[in-house]
Design a protein that fits this description.
about 0% strand, extended, 4 helices, mainly alpha
């Protein structure tokens, strides 16, 4: 699985546990499972319809992630702001 060994997965699990705490882990897992399920459903729909453009798929997945994960909207907004600042800085 992505070239990760069991020790790396344990370290990642401990870090996630420390960051989010025991109360939030089931909520995060449920949201992640729902997002993966929704992504698979979308993938099945898109492979059947070749005329649907890829950007609409990205927007649909983005909406699902924002709905399922607490704090995802704030993170996406922050990323957009960072990208804007990066564009301004690289122009100068």
């Amino acid at each position: 699985m992505f070239g990760l060994g069991s020790s790396e997965l344990i370290v990642i699990g401990v870090i996630v546990f420390l960051i989010f705490g025991a109360k939030r882990l089931p909520e995060i897992g449920k949201g992640l499972g729902g997002a993966i399920r929704e992504f698979r459903n979308i993938k099945k729909d898109v492979t059947g319809k070749e005329s649907e453009p890829i950007p609409s798929l990205n927007e649909h997945v983005k909406k699902q992630v924002v709905q399922r994960f607490p704090g995802a909207k704030q993170i996406m907004d922050l990323k957009e702001k960072v990208d804007k600042v990066d564009k301004i800085v690289t122009r100068s």
